[in-house]
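User: Run a structure prediction on this.
Assistant: Running it now.
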Amino acid sequence: RGARGTTVRLMISAPDNKLHTVEVPRSLPVVGGTGSSSATPPPGRTPAAAPAGAPAAPPRAAAPQAASVPAPVSSGATPASVSFVNWVEPKEHSFSLEVPQGWNVTGGLNWVGPQEQQPFVRALSPDGKLQIFIGDADMTTRQVPTPISVAQNRAREGAVFRTPSGDPVLMQRYMPGSQFARLEVTTRHCPNARWLSEGDRPDLARAVATAVQPEATKFGMTASASAGDTGFTCDAREGYAVAVTVLVTANGAAGALQAWLVQGLGVFLSADPMRSMQTRYIMEHMLGTQKYDPQWNAAYEQRVARTTGSVMSMQNAEFQVQQGAARSASNTLSMLNHPNQGVSVRPGQRPSSSVNTTLGTRDMCDAIGRCKTVSLDAGAVFIDHSGNVVPGTSSGAPPDNSGVWSPMYQR
């Protein structure tokens, strides 16, 4: 519907209430009058080949497991009903980004150590049906376990050790972007996610690697990046996650040591299939406009060690790359129509070494080494970035979908 010449986007709502898309030209002009129930088909199309009022187009072919990179979002794809306002991190004014006007937005800067911090933002639509999560408050630097790194830090894979500055580092083998996106979903948002699609984003990975390598070179290191995404369903909701991981390698006399970082992390959950594409657009807009305050960043880099300073500079460079790396939400969300079934695997519970049967308690820790004593009767328990511990649901899921809960395991 619309005036003649109006550019529209064609969507089909299938009987199963999933959002389906079809391949159509970028410009689809309305050829009938406003409010017309049956428009004249465009030249080259016959009425029998198209639904009333819309050109015919073949359905999308089944997406392969490694999805191709969709085209960038065009100016015509911007939802007219969404307007954005600038949101500034409230406590330290460390970073800002653009958020949809009228949404409930919370977030901040969580210091996981004396020198390491993580920005995070949560956005909830006014009707509560759309949720967007940018970053993770409890994220920390990872180090790749090798015989040398394990011996130096006396920490096996899965354990957390402290740097001389007191910052936590998780010993964990490197994960590409799509693999980490899955891990983030299962541990923070939906343990029983049903995987529908997964793909690499080589365009974004190349752009991030190009942006961070000059900074890594200043410190005698090399850097590479991996970007990937995954589509899933969580009960009656549709979801999508994208992550960028950066691997930094330093060669020394004792051999190569590798650390890796998670950057450009975004997740959304939509309880309204007809607005899933809009939610994707909003999430990528938030990622693309996120940036650190220059004055805050300058003061921060003055007080941190050289390595931490290089990490921050890489993060700033990655934020800038995100501004030019948004992709078409319709192309990615259409992959939800072609399930790529996977198996949700939760991390195994660690062997018990601190169970007190006399008191009926056990010690539980999360991935960054925060430990609490809980009752033996407690099932799955979760901790937020403030240290609050609460039980999960009977199915082992987090207590809510706020995205602030980290699972805890027996020590």
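The first strand starts at residue 11 and ends at 13.
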